[in-house]
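Hi Y.,

Following your request, here is the sequence exactly as I used it, all 416 residues.
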Amino acid sequence: MTKVIQPVSEQKGPVQGGKALNPPQIPLVAGGSIVSAVLVIYLAFTQDVSQVVLLILGLLLGFTLFHARFGFTSAFRRVMSVGNGQALRAHMLMLAIAVTLFAPILATGFTFFGGQATGYVSPVGVSLLVGAFVFGIGMQLGGGCASGTLYAVGGGRSVMFITLLFFIVGSTVGAYHLPFWTEEMPSFKPFSLATSTGLGYTGAWIISLIFFGLVAWVTLRVEKVKNPPRMAALPSAKGWKRVVRGSWPLMAAAVVLAVLNALTLMTRGTPWGITSAFALWGSKAASLMGIDVASWGYWTGENASALQASIFSDSTTVLNFGVILGAFLASAAGGLFRFNKITGGNAMASVIGGLMMGYGARLAFGCNIGAYFGGIASFSLHGYVWGIVALSGTFLALYLRPLFGLSVPKPKDTFC
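Below is the corresponding structure, written out as tokens. Let me know if you'd prefer a different format.
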């Protein structure tokens, strides 16, 4: 019998194959809707209107991530273990749409609520290399990347609450150590394909599309040689009901995520990010415990005000809450929200993976969203380097996962 491998953060509930969808969990949908509405009203009365827009964008991001089971962790694991590049090709489409939308926005600096739109362009150095490698290992042990952790929590995957907790701890420790990595370790200046080369945004856009096309072509060639297992279809409603219930095609989700990221850029002036909020949450908690967080180098300068303000004034926090709520609504609408059993090995892997992702994300100037997705969409060299180094971390993690009882796809497996 062919074994079915469930990507840890990408599948919620039992694999149903051709069976009918579970009935919607109406009380949960109603509860999630009420919480979302209350949060919208609270933000409308206490924060800038842009925060309301960001919450809505977060809801849509979480809804999309869950319905498509759009993963970064499993995409890297599949291509590195058995050569299946289906999900990685979806990444390339997402990035192609993103750079197409980002180019004119960054060139003009246009935003909806004033200010200048700026991308994520960070230096390439020891901090990035170490951080991305550590993150690549961590996301394979922790069961999901930054976005995967949030939408898995929203979907009720119990062990991911452990991952999230230690993700926050790791981010906080990383914030404390960051000045050492950025000031004492060697690095190059930030490099943009658009502004550091003379190519401009048009030239950088063309080069980017060529690269994405090349990566997609390579994955197809690898699949032709290796003939890896395909991704199994997930249960889905038909017609317009599929928007609310059932799985979405990866390619459709790739387009939606790129558009939502561009809208995020025009709303708050920077692309979608996740992990800076984890450092903020952890630092505020540490401050309550009597730790002098304000003296840390990370919380001086432009970051100082965030430490003193309400977390609801932090745009990344609002986006994160939206992603969790959006995934919760999507899982409840599909009848898939449920808590599951946590094993000892799974829990330990989540602790270690969460710590590694949190620490790595701070060193690498972001995670799979802020550094990889946002960095590449912003035409920053560090985004490409992050992806390559995180893939190498994934390769090492393939040998570590079995130590915790975690599965690794094999050539004869079918995975969802």
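Residues 200-226 form the longest helix (27 residues).

Thanks again,
Q.
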